[in-house]
Amino acid sequence: MAEGTLIVNAKKQFRIKFVNSKGKEVEHPVPDAELSQSLKKEIIEKLNGRKVELDEVGGQPKKVRPVGEPFSAPTPPPPVRSSQQQQGSQQRGPQGRSTQGRRQPQQSAPTVRGAFHNPYNFVPALPREGIAGELGDDVPIGHHVLHPDRFTGVIRVKMTVKTPLLVPDATKMIEYDRDDPQLGIKAGHKSFPVCVDADGKPYIPPTSLKGMLRTAYEAVTNSRLAVFAGHEDRLADRMPARDGLSLVPARISDGNGELQIELLPGNSGISSSGKPVQGDPMYSAWLPRYRQSDGSIAPFAIRYPDKNLPEDGDNVEVWLELWERSGNHPFDYWSVRKCVRVGGSLGSQPPQGQPRGSHRPVQNVAMIKVFGVVCITNRNIDRKHDERVFFTTRNEPILHSLTDELRQQWCELITNYQSIHDEERRAGMAGPPALNNSVWSRQVVGGLEVRQLSNGTLCYAAFRDGQMIALYPVMISRRLFESSPQSLLPESLHPATSLDKLSPADRVFGWVNQRGKGAYKVCEHSSSIRSANGWVNQRGKGAYKGNVRIGPVTCHTPKEKAIEPFGTPGLPLAILGQPKPQQARFYVAVSENGETQRKGLGKEQAGYSPGKGLRGRKVYPHHNGLPNGHWDNGVQDRTQQSVAGHVQEYRRPDSDKVRDNQNRSIQGWVKPGTEFTFDIHVTNLSKVELGALLWILSLPDNHFHRFGGGKPLGFGSVRLEIDSANTHLHDGNDWKQTYSTLADALPNAADRNALIQDFRDAVRTSYGSASFEDVSFIAAWLKMASGHADNLPTHYPRAQLRPDPDGKNFKWFTLNEGDTQESLGNLIQDPGLTIIDK
Asked: Which of 358, 512, 604, 795 to pair with 176, CA 20 to 30 A apart?
């Protein structure tokens, strides 16, 4: 509970000033639903300056009430009739006229019922400081001799396909160079055949299996990450729209050879939070530009006398008229009525503008004539109608220093903007796929040049407690998190940088020093080992071959029973989602131990910040509980049919673009039941190192590894089992005895169960658990391998029950941020392998 002071503005809107949980004085609007009914009954003018009590939730005021009184909820509005109730009954207007045919208010998003599991999740990666023995870091044993207390030999493994396997042959890929409407093919679509050997059977590269085994081995031994490049820069997420009101227009200017920040706040005062002083208009002037309906240039767009449109960075002289917007969130703003380039003739004051909907000129306020600069950020949101003109009426400029920290933040932010949209732009998209009539913002298409602040750069400045904390390219911008992913990863989990720091997976599967390998950097103030001028090729010193080798993979199933052919162009796969580490609710943990964050946190509270951790190693749980026939007739579109709550997630629904450059087609897959064998050759493995490998090859029934492509869609679950008759493991002493006597018989076989128990005991004791299965990373990995036991569907988050042809899931994230629980399908909390739903 906290105490605060109510503020009532001239438009009878409530705000509250209070000291938050961080000890800072803040001011926030009070939503109508959070104002006690007893306060609402009082005369509104008497509430200005009134001391009240409130609850602070997520930094926001809740349950605002008189001091010493319980909160009394306001009377709810009359219930809204459902669409079913409205059908068959004509609603009557105030004069009794039928309202049929009138445009009715838009209905809310369709309600999604039921729960689901996300296709990816995380296995905790615990800090390794203090972990000694064979699960700790050490110099590898080497290959020069068979050591007496180490094990060498071969493990024969049988691999059985549980769900269809995607092993595409990229060398025989077909790329369509023109549209084919009959087949629903768009230019740029790619179709892949199954990769086969000389006998026409599925071919699996041994290196791919080694990668699968290493991933599992890293997780169950809690080893260092083999690769963690590209995570040293901070990520960014879209700020709430309301925060854009706190940004002050600014321009980078050259002051005596040194760049500085000049604020251009119009004729408004700047509060400590950055917002205009109460009652003042928005800072920048609106420059009419686009039709809301389709984003084209509107007839009312402001042009120069020569009919050309103003361009970004133009210095102009303008007539401005003060307008007001009425409604739930009223505000005042300046609108450009006439515009010329500096040096041109602006002419006389234009006539007063005509009201448009909720917008109208403010009466009895004279137009003003000012100099300014045009800011064009492009038609980057749907229904955008205006660009901006930055200006100031102050005689003395408001200047701030352009610090290295501000430069670095800007570079990281613009780099983030460009990187997250890079693949979409390469695919030929003209604008954000989530929008209909929009194009990319200027910072997305500006290339390397816009990553550096330079003389004339137009931006927006953010303030906190009167101090400038960041610069943004647009008014509602992406915003950097406080910390980078790398800074939240314990040092003991970073990739090894020297031989004496090799973790179990590095020693067993091999290691190459990643530090200092060629990298490109354009942020001149970066703290990482990169350069503003291009490549720094300081290749890390050191590598180790590893003590495991995978032999050739043999398919034992006849080719006609091993491959399900689909012909050409093949089965159109659903669009696979790109990794979105900026979705901090999914990737960020409460601490270094990987625990999920609690529900209800705001975007900033849930973000990458000091003191938090990462969820762990990304995995794709086995899709358990799929109904019979789920993989039958894959080419047939059954995506809109539900069987026991499951739909055909792996196929893209039919549409006029069922095959475009966003998805791929496959000409066949490896059938469930297909069997392969391969040998794992090991040398000089310790008891624990070998025991860990044997354990992941001897999982309980109905536990699977994930291999190949399309894992988020359910493909690639495989069962591994050891072929005991063809497995031979012996320690160095026994090998020495055999070689010294030239005996025909093999040495005594190692006790595989004892080796597995050595590994289990090492994990249990090293991580302080009474049970091996209760160690967090073991429990989570077993849950990944077996899949969720509740048989709920697994798919990417989406705001509708059925898959969308365009694979759009942004609406779910929008609703999730808005805390609209009834409009969400819920992600499930599940011990061991958990994920958050808020």
From this structure: 795
